Automatic annotation (TrEMBL):
Keywords: Cytoplasm, Nucleus. It comes from [Myrmecia] bisecta. This is Chloride conductance regulatory protein ICln. Residues 205-221 have a biased composition (Acidic residues). Pfam families: Voldacs. The keyword Nucleus applies. InterPro entries: ICln, ICln/Lot5/Saf5, PH-like_dom_sf. Belongs to the pICln (TC 1.A.47) family. GO terms for biological process: cell volume homeostasis; chloride transport; mRNA cis splicing, via spliceosome; spliceosomal snRNP assembly. Its main location: cytoplasm.
């Protein structure tokens, strides 16, 4: 059951109380073209490390994530995709005792979460824990697809279209959902992209400048002076 105290805590995590329910289904925002992408029963919502809200049904829509508790009275929480700053599959028993989807949310600007946090700022986190872990891949895929439909409104659209932001990844985003071999391959790939030349390699590149100078001289020669006697295309 979602108690008032739990609601206050959830609000500090960026969650909104949700009570628009008909026949056990959330009422979607038709004016915003909200559509249901997937629903998953027996999914527990855990706030922070251990604030378990109990089992409920998870609804992933094209605009938000909605969780409705199984207990009475009906009710639950919703979170906008813009509030979710990172999400990943978590299957490490040392991180959490059950396979789940782990998510970090934007820190609340009001409420007890920030006011009582006198140490370093920590992003609020939650976990979606299905009773049947076989549902996790589909849950994660739907979450990724719908999150992509809701980019941060402060993001520069021009940069996205040009692909200029595609290289910048958080390590958790790069490794989210990858197996051991995939993780190793991805890390090697990004390390290779950032590989700096050795001193010997750098010296070779400097010496190669003479080759480029020779090529430029060839282009300036008359046609009959080229070694192959053929026309050299202009660049």
């Amino acid at each position: 059951m979602v108690s008032p105290a739990d609601s206050e805590t959830a609000a500090a995590y960026g969650l909104h109380p949700f009570a628009e329910i008909t026949d056990g289904q959330p009422v979607l925002d038709q004016e915003d073209d909200e559509a249901l992408a997937g629903s998953y029963p027996q999914v527990s919502l855990v706030l922070g490390a251990d604030l378990d809200q109990g089992p409920g049904t998870l609804f992933i829509t094209t605009r938000r994530v909605i969780w409705l508790q199984a207990a009475q009275p009906p009710g639950g929480y919703a979170v906008d995709y813009q509030t979710i700053t990172m999400h990943a599959l978590s299957q490490d028993p040392e991180a959490f005792d059950r396979p789940c989807i782990y998510a970090q949310l934007e820190a609340s600007t009001s409420g007890e979460y920030d006011e009582n946090d006198e140490e370093e700022e920590v992003s609020p986190e939650l976990r979606l824990v299905p009773a049947d872990s076989a549902a996790l891949p589909d849950m994660f895929q739907k979450l990724c697809e719908c999150a992509a439909l809701n980019p941060d409104p402060g993001q520069d659209d021009d940069d996205d279209e040009d692909g200029e932001n595609d290289f910048f990844y958080d390590e958790d985003e790069v490794l989210a959902g990858a197996g051991a071999e995939q993780r190793a391959a991805r890390l090697n790939h990004y390390d290779a992209l950032l590989q700096m030349p050795s001193a010997d390699q750098f010296q070779e590149m400097v010496e190669d400048d003479d080759k480029f100078a020779d090529a430029e001289d060839d282009e300036d020669r008359p046609l009959d002076q080229h070694p192959n006697g053929q026309h050299q295309p202009a660049h």
